[in-house]
Amino acid sequence: MKILDVPQSGKLGVTVSLGGRNGQVRRILAIPGNPQTEAQLLIRNFLGNAASLWRQIAEEQRLAWIAAAEQEQSKPRLGQSGPLSGIQLFTKINCSLLLVGEAVVSDVPAKPQFPTLPVTGLTLTNTAGTIALKLACSDDLELNTIVRASKPVSAGVYKQTDLRYLGTAPVVSGGYSTITDLYTAGFGVPAVGQKVFVTVNQCIDGWQDIAHKFSAIVPTAS
Predict the structure, then answer these.
(1) H/E stretch holding 94
(2) Is the distance from CB of 195 to CB of 183 less than 8 angstroms?
(3) Which of 69, 109, 122, 210 could form a disulfide with 89 if both were Cys (CB 3.0 to 4.6 A apart)?
(4) How far apart are CA 54 and CA 61, in angstroms?
(5) Which domains does the chain have, with CATH numbers?
(6) Which stretches of the chain are assigned E, i.e. beta strand?
(7) Collapsed DSSP state (helix, strand, coil) of residue 72
(8) What is the pLDDT of residues 91-123, one digit of tens each?
(9) 2-43, pLDDT tens digit by residue?
């Protein structure tokens, strides 16, 4: 429900406060699903050991992370943002590397120049009842192109922020990267008339560029 209060975010007892489209909102705390995928468990293990690993690297390495972090802003929350700390950037980069199956690093990787993302849209097809989800691509994808998505929603929904990591996009064939298996493994097969939201972004040496969001509605069978 909407409330009149100071801006706030997070859990309070059995409720959660967050900013909504029309102001401050408070709702009953819901425990999210926990599929415990291999990627989730790997990241959780790293997060549990991040502080210890941070202490184990050389002082010169920590100072380099701190200097690099001063140029990176945190994601805005309640209208506020600021530079990251060294350990925050260290954790962020290494979690990204683990997410795409690469080894963690002790030195700050150079920030890359990201190429233009060649994904131009999301296409959903329904051939005799078989649903397929494809990313339309104007060119081949970089090796680690990350795909996130949300569970199917009503066609009348136009904003979706509850996105889950699904994996990296398969190679392009015939102008499309088919993500059907990635999506259905996470959320099952969407029904006719439901809308699917997907975000795609590139990961190079642990750095991620801005995600591009796409959506499409499952058509009737053809």
Answers:
(1) helix 86-99
(2) no
(3) 69
(4) 9
(5) 1-31 (no CATH), 38-99 (no CATH), 119-217 (2.60.40)
(6) 10-12, 15-20, 23-28, 119-127, 130-137, 145-149, 164-168, 176-178, 195-204, 207-208, 212-217
(7) coil
(8) 999 999 998 989 999 999 999 999 999 999 999
(9) 666 666 666 766 576 666 556 667 777 656 666 667 777 878
Q: CA-to-CA distance for 163 and 78, rounded, in angstroms?
A: 20
| Dihedral sign for Cα atoms in the order 57, 207, 152, 133 | negative
- Take residue 154 and report the two structure tokens written for it: 């009503």
Identify whether the C-beta of residue 178 lies closer than 8 Å to the C-beta of residue 134.
Answer: yes
Question: Interior CA angle at 171 toward 134 and 95, to 5°?
Answer: 95
Q: What is the pTM of this model?
A: 0.82
> Helices 86-99 and 38-56 sit at what angle, rounded to 10 degrees?
140
What's the Cα-to-Cα distance from 120 to each of 71, 141, 176, 222, rounded to whole Å? Answer: 30, 12, 10, 23
